[in-house]
Write a structure and sequence with these properties.
About 60% of the residues lie in helices and about 10% in strands. It has about 80 residues and is mainly alpha-helical. Strand 1, helix 2 and strand 2 form a beta-alpha-beta unit. Helix 1 packs across helix 2.
Amino acid sequence: MNAFLVAFGREIFEIVPGRVSTEVDVRLSFDTVSTVALARELIDLYESLGTPRERALIKIASTWEGIQAAGVLERLIEERLES
């Protein structure tokens, strides 16, 4: 399913300038670890197809766990930028 979502997103990238969003499965709304893992998988899938990560907007649930996942992902991005 994730590969399908990313393939669909890639088609939209060809038409729409800027970012296109892909949402983490809502069933993971209360699972921080799985939300982080899936967000990273989606970004990796986009990159493997030649889409720069800067163009992919990954949407996550605004539950407590989702907010915690956003914090983890933000720290990962900061670490990547620092290295």
